[in-house]
Amino acid sequence: MDVHPDLLLPDRIPEMERHHSKPSQVLPFALYALCALSDEELAACRQQCVADIDCDDNIVQLAPKAVFKDQSLRIIVEYHVELGFGGQFDGKFFIVVVHPSSYTVLVVALDDDELQCKPDLLWSKIGKSGLVAANLGIGIIMWDEAKDHSMHKIYACTCNLDVTFNDFNLTSVMALRTLGPKAAAALDEELMSTGAFSIDQLMELAGLAVSQTMYALSPPSKSPNILVACGPGNNGGDGLVAARHLHYFGYKPTMYFPKQSKNELFGRLRTQLEQLKVPFTDDFVGTAKRSDWIIDAIFGFSFSGEVREPFPGVIKALAESKVPVLAVDAPSSWNIETGPPDDGPGKDYNPDALISLTAPKPLVKWFKGRHFVGGRFVGEDIAEKYGFDVPPYKGSDQTVEIGSQGEKL
Ligand SMILES: NC(=O)C1=CN([C@@H]2O[C@H](COP(=O)(O)OP(=O)(O)OC[C@H]3O[C@@H](n4cnc5c(N)ncnc54)[C@H](O)[C@@H]3O)[C@@H](O)[C@H]2O)[C@@H](O)CC1
Ligand SMILES: [K+]
Question: Where on this chain does K(+) bind (predicted)?
Fold first, then answer.
């Protein structure tokens, strides 16, 4: 797994005192990247940053040296301190793209509202970042206000960066808009009652999102052999659907489905796979070793208590797996609210990737890998009612990567 970017800031930047005596002036905000971006991608990011600005879209400009691939935020800070004295860019605020496929960016302030030269940062949706910086730059909003506001509005889970964060991280984690197990179940109910969806439809969309996430992580040309581990509930159903799509995408899925529910839907999903000659195995551990990726569709938001047979050995194998794992909705055996169990087979389980269905659950606070959201079937009204944001899916994608960790797609 990739190292998270180092976003630590210095406690104080004494050089900023030199700005205190300068007359205020509206200058462009510099845009930087901590990841590899081509000139075209950088230009596109700049465009996105100013997407919400009506009048002057030159307010965000690429810094003369804009890309600091795999370097620490401190290096950009040092560079920007010098750049800011040149009078071409705003000396106090700048914007940083941390992960190329995330739709959040950092807005960094090198000084605080009390002019104590204390730097800080906030996450902003990329489309709002230019406006946020502009509002801060001309004093329409104060830093604390902008920070509060952005915390409630952004959807991305910054929690994965906790090793590199200061106090800011705690605020961001607390303010994450996640969906607890009861709310997730209630939302499912609502989609199936007033929303008029059937469970087959929701599962089909969830499974499609899982398969698209697998494709985004590693296409079949690189990772043809996928072991899909399915549990007895709807999480397992998502895995069965995903496997069918994976087959059509060109993968060779193998199913581990040791405890099939009597529900006829699961029988149909199994038959569909058997007709495609997708193999079912009883040997999870042996097949796992020969696979390129594993999909963990064992338990989702209705898991509780200690893992019962036959799953403890499977969870242990997932925890120890050298083969990368994509977890569906939750790393199986994790408590939806409190994350990894204190002991038992899932204690050290932290999969490489997670696709949260509909919205992230509170457990993402403990998750350290690449994070996607799938569920392009929830309208703004329902999302607002349940207190989460619909992420900006692109094109015809059913899934979108959020957060700022992990490798480039
Ligand atoms: N909100 C959404 O977008 C959708 C969610 N779906 C999926 O549905 C999942 C929830 O499905 P379910 O409510 O059926 O539940 P789960 O699939 O999370 O798990 C319930 C099953 O696991 C068993 N189980 C629970 N605790 C256990 C333990 N300690 N040891 C062994 N077995 C245990 C239960 O007996 C039950 O069979 C979600 O996480 C998601 O993956 C989709 O299928 C439909 C759309
Ligand atoms: K799972």
Answer: 235, 296, 332
Alpha-carbon dihedral sign for residues 242, 243, 244, 248: positive
Residue 334: CB within 6 Å of ligand 1? no
The stretch 250-278 carries a mean pLDDT of 97
pLDDT in tens, 351-360: 999 999 998 8
Give pLDDT, residue 403: 61
| pLDDT tens readout for residues 306-320 | 999 999 999 999 999
Q: Is the CB of 111 under 6 A from ligand 1?
A: no
- Domain map (residue ranges) of the chain: 14-175, 181-402
Ligand 1 pocket, 377 CB below 6 A?
Answer: no
Instruction: Tell whether residue 335 is among the known ligand binding residues.
Output: no
Kindly identify the ligand whose nearest atom is closest to the C-alpha of 304.
1
Closest ligand to the CA of 206: 1
Could you report how far apart the first and last alpha carbons of the chain are, in Å? Answer: 13
Give pLDDT tens digits for 170-183: 223 223 367 878 88
**Side chain identity at 377, as an amino acid letter?**
F
- Distance, in Å, from the CA atom of 340 to the CA atom of 319, rounded to the nearest integer, reads 11
Q: What is the CATH number of domain 14-175?
A: 3.40.50.800
Give the Cα separation of 196 and 189 in Å (integer): 10
Does the C-beta of 388 come closer than 6 Å to ligand 1? Answer: no
Question: In degrees rounded to 5, what are phi and psi of residue 60?
Answer: -115, 125
CATH second-level architecture of 181-402?
Answer: 3-Layer(aba) Sandwich (3.40)
User: Cα–Cα distance between 239 and 241 in angstroms, integer?
Assistant: 5
- The percentage of the chain sitting over the pLDDT mark of 70, rounded to a whole number, equals 89
- Look over the chain and give the mean of its residue pLDDT values, rounded to a whole number: 86
Please tell me the distance between residue 297's alpha carbon and the centre of ligand 1 in angstroms.
Answer: 9
Mean local confidence (pLDDT), 187-200: 89
What's the CA-to-centroid distance between 226 and ligand 2, angstroms? Answer: 15
Q: What is the per-residue pLDDT for 170?
A: 26
14-175 against 181-402: fold identical: yes
Q: What are the helix (H) ranges across 73-195?
A: 73-84, 126-137, 143-153, 167-175, 181-192
